[in-house]
Structures are given as structure tokens and as C-alpha cells.
């Protein structure tokens, strides 16, 4: 569903879909209200092509903290980047669809949603939640804020 006020829209799954033994989240995000799940034709370089969202994995891995200590850290791995060049008639405002701080905020929200619904549904280690989110559109071109539009159990 289009909310009509989105700088970014996206979907995510609260699990590492590539390596299920490693904690993670899988995310697709796109500029504006361009559909993530049903790509819409856009003009890129004078040609009509299907839109492609940012697609990335957030994974929690062991790593060096820079002081010789080994601890869990979150990494972000892109599979592909959005091909959208303009949104609402203006050049896209960021290199990646989500800023670094928005990725951290989304990851934290996904962790909270996963923890809550895993208890509600008495989920096992394979339990995950499918979410839809947006970054709100503003009238002054400032960056909006994260809103979770929907969350439901993920079915493999």
C-alpha cells in the first residue's frame, strides 16, 4: 500500500536468508513510493527499464574491535544498488537509499520486532518476521523518520 508520503519504502525479513546460522536481517529499500516488490518502469539514461531497489544483508559476525578484542559486530553487505536517479522530480538525495543512521535505526527496530513476535508466536530458532517500512516525506526536503507500516510472521 502506498502511503503517499514516503522518501523511502522498503521490506525486510528478520533473519539472514543466506546463512541462517548467523544472526541477520535481509532488506530491500527503494526511493520514494516506487514499488520494491513489483518493479515499475523508470527512465534511466534515456531508456525504459524496471526499477531495482537497494538489496542488502545485515549480519552479526565476530570481529576485532580495533583494540585486539573479539566481539560481535554488525556488517552490511550490498547485493545490488537502486538504479533510480530521480525521485519526485529531483535527483536522489543519498548514495544509498538508506543513510547509515537509518540502517542502524531499522536494524534496532527489526531486532525489537523479532524479539516481541518470537515470544507472541512461541517461535523457534527459525522464526522470522516480514516487515514493511518507510522513511517519511517532509515538506522542507529534510530527512523524515522511520515508521514501521506492517509486521507479520515470515513463511519460508
What do these coordinates show?
The chain has 156 residues and is mainly β. It contains 1 helix and 10 strands, in the order ββββββββαββ. It has one helix at residues 100-120, and strands at residues 6-13, 24-31, 41-44, 47-50, 54-64, 70-80, 86-87, 90-91, 129-136, 146-153. A 6-stranded antiparallel sheet has the order 6-5-2-1-9-10, covered by helices on one side. A hairpin with a 2-residue loop joins β3 and β4 (47-50). The protein is globular. The two termini are 22 Å apart.
Keywords summarizing the entry:
single chain; six-stranded antiparallel beta sheet; two-stranded antiparallel ribbon; 10 strands; 42% strand
Could you give the distance between the termini?
22 Å
- What is the β-strand count? 10
Secondary-structure element sequence? EEEEEEEEHEE
So how many helices? 1
Largest sheet: 6 strands, antiparallel
Strand order of the largest sheet: 6-5-2-1-9-10
Helix content estimate: 10-25%
Strand content: 35-45%
Average pLDDT figure: 91
Shape: globular
Gyration radius, in Å: 17 Å
Give start-end ranges of low-pLDDT stretches.
none
Class by SSE composition: mainly beta
